[in-house]
From TrEMBL:
It comes from the Bacteria. InterPro entries: KH_dom-like_a/b, OsmC/Ohr_fam, OsmC/Ohrsf. GO terms for molecular function: peroxidase activity. The keyword Oxidoreductase applies. This is OsmC family protein. Its EC number is 1.11.1.-. Keywords: Oxidoreductase, Peroxidase. It comes from Kurthia populi.
Length: 129
């Protein structure tokens, strides 16, 4: 579970493990992750986790620093209140063969719960606490 609360005019994001991050509070000069950035990070992290799992499963020697992702959410012109695309660029260990790299990208995309949830347009239910 992820929680958001405000402390000293700052949005604080926490998880069950006690980790915290600072979220954007809406003030133009404020620091913190914006919701778009958190969405992009969730997709990118999910993809890299899948890549790591497959590399480990296949017994491929790699350095953790050689696996990375950049995600960019965008909207089509005229579309408001939702992103229409999320583009992910994966960085994979350089020593991998081309066919295996292609396989990794497909597996990362297919196995990403966050990406699959977004693609399927999950329902969101909001209630008062």
């Amino acid at each position: 579970m992820t929680r958001i609360h405000y402390d000293n005019q700052q949005a604080i994001i926490t998880n069950d493990a006690g980790m915290t991050a600072t979220g954007f509070n809406g003030d133009i000069d404020a620091q913190g992750f914006r919701p778009k950035e958190l969405l992009e990070a969730a997709v990118a992290l999910c993809m890299t986790m899948n890549v790591r799992k497959v590399l480990e499963r296949d017994g491929i020697d790699f350095q953790l620093e050689d696996v990375a992702a950049t995600a960019t959410a965008s909207k089509e012109d005229g579309v408001t209140n939702r992103f229409t695309a999320i583009d992910v660029e994966l960085t994979l260990p350089a020593h991998l063969e081309a066919a295996y790299r292609t396989k990794l990208i497909k597996i990362a995309e297919r196995g990403c719960t966050i990406g699959n949830t977004i693609k399927a347009s999950a329902s969101i239910s909001v209630t008062e606490a």
